[in-house]
């Protein structure tokens, strides 16, 4: 008899607990959104997105989020909308029992700004195309010429290599595509340019360039040459300013 009474008490306790939990869930589901808390990763100093832009993305169907019961919100659909932004790398959305919506965003990282005869866009660190923003302009290296989609990854790799070297990063300010697969590097000082050639084995070519700087350019000055060619992997060919090519 005592055993049956204990079982009955446990059963009644579970029923009461279930009722209370159900009531709490229904109450919280009817609660309207209290706040939208947006955290955007800005470690790379990119500001393509802000709280207002994210809010507009979420409300693009015309339904103000602050007037919506939190139980009616589909966080997965919200994540999908935000991830469709060309400036978003990853987005995570969650909601809590207090009526708060939490949005955490990591932005894509541009590595170059490309200007062709017909278009202008960014290339990201993973070699993808990203549109120009109306609210922010990233301070990245400029690339000009007839850049094709198949060039994106190679250019991204080249520029990331340049950015990891203080000498190259402070010296090379632009890239010009001059042929189907050939490139020139534009420098910030001096009246010369660097003929890179193709992107093949660019690491070796740039190491040769640095050796040339150390051994020769420091002795004669920046205006002594009009072109420095590193298109051949095993040599550097420099053309003097007063020399006919």
Automatic annotation (TrEMBL):
Keywords: Cell cycle, Cell division. GO terms for biological process: cell division. This is Cell division protein FtsQ.
